[in-house]
Amino acid sequence: MTIIGIAGGATFAPLQQATMDGVDPRLAGTASGVSSTIRLVGGVLGTAMLGALLPARRRCNAPRPPRSR
């Protein structure tokens, strides 16, 4: 989690600056809001995909319980 926090902090500011560089100052608030929304939606979708795929993979690789007679 520490690595994710450091990497996120190190990349967010430059990416936000690159996004805002070409924007008309009158639209800066809108552009910032859209950028943040896209980042958050991407995080939610990524988390949902991992949450759906990892348990399915774990079930496939789990040993089967012994049969009872």
UniProtKB/TrEMBL annotation:
Protein's UniProt name: MFS transporter
Species of origin: Actinomadura miaoliensis
